[in-house]
Write a structure and sequence with these properties.
The protein is an alpha+beta fold. The chain is 16% helix and 27% strand. It contains 5 helices and 8 strands. The chain is globular, with a radius of gyration of 19 Å.
Amino acid sequence: MLDKPAFRNAMRRRRCLIPADGFYEWQAGATSGPKQPYFVRAKRGEGGAPPPLAFAGLWETWTGPNGEELDTAAIVTTDANRTLSAIHPRMPAFIAPADFDRWLDCDAVPAEEAAALIKPADEALLEVYPISPAVNRVANDSEVLIAPLSTQTEQSAPPQPLKSSRIKKSDDQPTLF
């Protein structure tokens, strides 16, 4: 990360955390068929709900040719841990709550020390499970997109794309749509 000119200054001066409940990853099938989507999240805690995750992030302000400014952010990735390596070779780098201050304090924590926090997640942190291919359509926005495929669903016909009239909004989950 420090050797790449595009990220060198951001790593020194503009580190951030990107909160998430989880993320999607796709695995290519053994045949030429469609890729299987998976949802990756923190394992459920004592309260039943999985805790949120914090991705290591870098931000930058880009200045265009006409002087316009655009704030951008990137999620830092690292090699996949053993759990995810069967699906994809890379994964987001997670920052543990105990390390939030070290990651964010660009004045007191040198980039080299912060870079040591970029590593594959502990095997005990994450759970991974297959989900419906409905996630591949941007018009779909419901909790179905993170629900595990059941044995019954896997044995039945492929799920039909969700229609916007069928989208059920959850009171505890914000939506952009």
